[in-house]
Design brief:
mainly alpha, about 0% strand
Length: about 230
């Protein structure tokens, strides 16, 4: 089983890197087409300004999100999610709920396989729904009552609330810490590039501290039991 999983991971890493590199190169095809065929080319200063604006907003996400999502989506899910997109609002919830439904633990080979299946199915369903939405979405949405349309803005917070509840039930103190920290930083009107890393790495730090404290208490308890036996 372990050898099979190792071979599976090696293939996933190879194909995952390859597909992401191809996707990265393909993302430059539209501007290259405009530049080569139609001669439309912005000035280098404009390109540098646009890149600096995007980087200033996204650089924290580029670093923090892979670290934050990897324990849930796993190796395969990481490659699939960053290729397909909709990571936070679709791939992560699907992966977490699929592993919960299957009764497997995140970060294990079993969890990685279940996450792969869940995310793979979500990509297919997402593609089907997206195609239908392109042709019929505007007609359907415009025909809905205004109060229903207004409720759409609560979908993403509801998804994240469900994920928080799912993991907080395993360790309610850690879940409460993350909730309070994010609430306080939001009330202080901190920018998202500060809230995200502080909440993620702060919760990780508290989780590590709790784990080490539990190990220390267990060691002390075992030592006491051993001394009593003598």
């Amino acid at each position: 089983m372990k050898d099979t999983y190792k071979n599976f991971v090696k293939q996933i890493i190879f194909w995952g890197r390859l597909t992401l590199i191809v996707a990265w190169l393909c993302s430059f095809l539209p501007p290259l087409y405009l530049a080569v065929v139609h001669g439309i080319m912005p000035e280098l200063s404009s390109i540098a300004k646009a890149f600096s604006m995007i980087a200033s907003v996204m650089i924290v996400s580029w670093i923090v999100e892979p670290i934050a999502y990897f324990p849930i989506v796993g190796i395969t899910g990481t490659y699939m999610s960053w290729l397909a997109g909709n990571i936070s609002n679709m791939r992560v919830p699907v992966s977490a709920l699929a592993q919960t439904a299957a009764g497997v633990e995140e970060g294990t080979p079993e969890g990685d396989i279940i996450s792969t299946l869940g995310i793979g199915i979500s990509v297919i369903v997402n593609l089907i729904v997206l195609v239908l939405a392109v042709f019929f979405g505007q007609q359907v949405i415009s025909s809905l009552p205004a109060n229903i349309q207004e409720a759409f803005k609560f979908i993403l917070p509801a998804v994240f609330g469900a994920i928080l509840a799912n993991f907080a039930l395993r360790d309610y103190m850690l879940g409460l810490f993350a909730l309070v920290m994010s609430f306080v930083l939001t009330m202080l009107k901190m920018p998202s590039f500060i809230v995200l890393p502080v909440c993620v790495f702060g919760t990780i730090a508290v989780g590590i501290w709790k784990f080490r404290r539990k190990q220390a208490l267990t060691a002390v308890q075992r030592s006491d039991d051993k001394n009593e036996g003598l």
